Amino acid sequence: MSLLQVENLMVDYLTPDGALRAVDGVSFELKRGEILGLVGESGSGKSTAAMAAMRILGPPALITGGEVLFDGRDVLRMSAEQLRRWHWREISIVMQSALNALNPVLTMQEHFLDTIAAHRPELSNAEMLTRAAELLKMVDIDPRHLNSYPHELSGGMRQRVVIALALTLNPPLLIMDEPTTALDVVVEREILKRVLQLQKEMGFAILFITHDLSLLLEFATRLGVLYAGRLVAIGPTEIFRQGGIHPYTQGLLQAVPQLRGKREAFKSIPGSPPSLKKPPNGCRFHPRCPLVEERCRKEQPVLKHVQHGHQVACHVRT
Amino acid sequence: MNPALLFKQMLANRKARAGMIIFGLFVLVSLVGPWLVQDPTAFTAVPHQSPSWEHWFGTTGQGQDVFAQTIVGTRVTLAVGCATGFLVVLLGAVIGGIAGYLGGRTDDLLSLLINVFLVMPGLPLMVVLAAWLPPGPMTILSVLVLTGWAWNARVLRAQTLSLAQRDFVLAAKVSGESTLRIVTAEILPNMLSLMTSSFIGATIYAIGAQVGLEFLGLGDISKVTWGTNLYWASNDSALLLGSWWTFVPTGFCIALLGFGLTLINFGVDEIANPQLATESRWARKLKNRATADGSTPVVAGGVR
Amino acid sequence: MNRSIEYLLRRLGFYALAAWVAITLNFLIPRMMPGDPAQIMFARFKGEMSPSAIAALRETFGITDAPIWQQYFTYLRHLLSGDMGVSVSNFPEPVVSVIATGLSWSIFLAGSALIISFILGTSLGALAAWRRGGLLDSIAPPLLALLGAFPYFWMAMLALFIFGFGLGWFPLWHAYPEGTSPGLNLPFILGAFYHAALPAATMIIASLGGWMLAMRNTMVGILGSDYITYARARGLAPRRVLIRYAARNALLPNITGFGMALGFVLGGALLTEIIFSYPGQGYLLIQAVRAQDYPLMQGLFLTITLAVLGANWLVDIVTLMLDPRTRR
Question: Into which CATH architecture does domain B3-272 fall?
Answer without folding.
Answer: Orthogonal Bundle (1.10)
